[in-house]
Each structure stands twice: as C-alpha cells, then as structure tokens.
Amino acid sequence: MDMEAVMKRMPPHSAEAEQAVLGAMLMNKDAIMVASEMLSGEDFYQTAYGILFDAVVELFHEGKPVDL
C-alpha cells in the first residue's frame, strides 16, 4: 500500500493536542469541565490518552482529587 493510500485511511490526529488537553485538565479543574462537555475518551486517537481522560473526568465527578 502506498503512503498516499495510508494517509487517506488514517484519521486526523495530533498527539501534542491530546497531551495539551490532558495537561490542562491536570492543572485546572475548569479545564476538566470544559473538556468533558466537548470530548469523550473515544475521541482520542491514542487509546491510553482516552483512558486517562475518562479516569480524570470520573474522579472529578466523584469529587476526588485529580493528580498523578
């Protein structure tokens, strides 16, 4: 399969953007609220980032501290 065909099949994604969202969520509770209204864990290309996103949102909704 040539590179052009691969690029057409691969969904657009940005690891840096996903990291920025998660970083903001870890630093600011307001960012958790905003991000959780716009995104879900399934929106992340990197599976691990989606799992982390869902965990942060769940902790936030349970009123538990969000830290690493």
Automatic annotation (TrEMBL):
This is Replicative DNA helicase. GO terms for molecular function: ATP binding; DNA binding; DNA helicase activity. GO terms for biological process: DNA replication. One of its GO terms (cellular component) is cytosol. InterPro entries: DNA_heli_DnaB-like_N_sf (IPR036185), DNA_helicase_DnaB-like_N (IPR007693), DNA_helicase_N/primase_C (IPR016136). The keyword Lipoprotein does not apply. It comes from the Bacteria. It comes from Candidatus Mediterraneibacter faecigallinarum. Residues 11-68 form the DNA helicase DnaB-like N-terminal domain. Keywords: ATP-binding, DNA replication, DNA-binding, Helicase, Hydrolase, Nucleotide-binding. The keyword DNA-binding applies.
